[in-house]
Request: fold
Amino acid sequence: MSTGTSRGSPFAYVAIALSAVAVFSMSYIHSAQRSEISRADRVLSTIRLARVDLNRGFLRTLPLGAESFDRDEGLAILRQAGQTIAEADRRYSSGGGGRTRASFAEVESSFASLMARLEADGRGGERDAELRIAFYGIERNAELLDETIQAELRSSLGALDGRYVAVLWAASLILIVVTAATHAAAVGRARVEGSLRESRELVRSIIENAPSLVYAFDAEGRCVLANRQAADFLGVEAQSMIGRSRGEWMDRQTERTHRLNDGIVMDGKAPITVEESISASGGEKVFLTTKFPIFGPGGEARAVVGISTDITDRKRAERELRDALGEREVLLRELNHRTKNNMQVISSWLALRSARSEDPAVVAALRDADAQVKAMALVHRKLYQGGDLSSVDLADYLRELVGVLLAAYGDGRLRVRTVLDFRELRTVIDAAVPCGLIVSELVSNTIKHGVGASGEGTIRMSLERDPEGNVRLAYADDGPGLPASDREPEARGIGLATVRAIGEGQLSGRVGLGFSGGFTFSLVFSDRGFRARV
Amino acid sequence: MGRKLKVLIVEDEALTAMSMRFELERTGHEVCAAVATGERAEAAFDATPPDLVLMDINLAGEIDGIETAARLRKRSAVPLIFISGYDDSRMVERAQAFAPLRYFTKPVSLEALVRAIDELLAPPPDPARADEITPT
Reply:
């Protein structure tokens, strides 16, 4: 998955650029305004000087010989012809000309008053002198007004300039901060949008590249999503599936089944996993489908998403395996039946031969053989009935075997009591069968030698697995025991020799025999070396 | 020994049938017929209605022992003892439908078989025991 850095919005960069341009522009305008103000000031000064020059020219043209002095000091002295400067100055001062400031109203009023007086007395000379004085007052007051205006203008412009600059920079700062914040937000939004875009792309990639069929249908049964695998399976274009219903690709029954499953998901608002079949050009396919709802803002189930995996091959393998297991079961059952049927035939043959013989030794030998057949038949039955073809409960097997043997040897007079102390002990058949043969020999021995003419006796047996894991089997009857001459196995025929051969040779165990106070037998062996054959 | 019985043996293994006949006759019973197929069992049954039928399940012929038992049961409520090499629960359940006296699993001791017959049929059959089937 990509984790590349997200880039900011172009808008943010444009905003920053515009901010910079705005600051530059405002600074430029501010500078231009200051230049304009300076220029206006210079123009004003020029006008003022021009006016002064005009006044000077006017005064020079007067026939009354007026003069003016020192305009920069703001003092002009007008005198009548023949009048000394000092006299004119005094006269002006005594006549009110000494004032340096006067309002236009005062000047206008005094001028009007003077003109009226001059008109009345007809004194032309005085009139000219007064006129000059009045003119001077007006000019002087205008001059003072210029200065005041200029001063106020400069002060105002200076204050305005300070506030303007402060406001300008504050606005610029705010604009920059806002722009930076906008940029940061844009970068964040771009990063989120980039992450969302990556997530959407990842999901899309997963859906498209999933080996399963991925699709979704809305509540009306219209397709709202289908990946390439779904489309390929149906032999259509994925985009062409959108908005169409299943009926356009499936037979009626299949569509009904699939929609029924969708309904279960919509109503239950919970996922389900089902097996669904779809007929396609390649034959019927079986899918393991998981369906789950997707919800709208109000919590309502809006659509059902399905993910279907083709399990046709697996189902076929399962069916073949099931068939094979069924065949194996039948085979095993028939084999078990045939085995026991054959053993029945052998047992029947032995019984018939025994019945036709008048030699007790032959009869006894045939009966022993029959007992061994039944011992082996029993272990087969235990294996088959137990469902575990490799092991049996040896205690259960030996318990039933003793009963079978006593029944087989029974001739009506036999009354043998059994005391069995058995613990459940599972072992493999290769250990169980030899144990059964040993017990068969031991029971046969007891019936022949351990019970008297009364046919009464007691057989005691114990079976357990000791802490070391060895199997311990003990057997005893309460018969008279054996004379010393008969205690060697070879002296007792093949019975005890068989027991010792099986116990020590086949089971690799330790065999103990006792002949005093009844017959005793013990066997200790390990069954760990026997492996299960099935 | 209890009362003398007329026994029909339905068994397709000749030696097995022969040994059963021998032991039954030795103990005083009468074997009216020993047949190997269900069809012959029907005929023998009709010829001489027995007091007891010893029925194998896997028989020669078209029908097995259970089907044969069903056909005989349509004729009478004759007591049945199944003797089979099958000891799986499915087969035992099928046999149980006919309320046999016993279900012996082969190889069966002939002495035990005859002893069971004497015990079961010496008194009149107890209906309460009719559905007890334990493979033996």
Summary: Residues 14-26 of chain B form the longest helix (13 residues). The interface with chain A takes residues 13, 15-16, 18-20, 22-23, 26, 58, 84-88, 105-112, 115 of chain B (CB under 8 Å). Residues 129-134 of chain B have pLDDT under 50 and may be disordered.
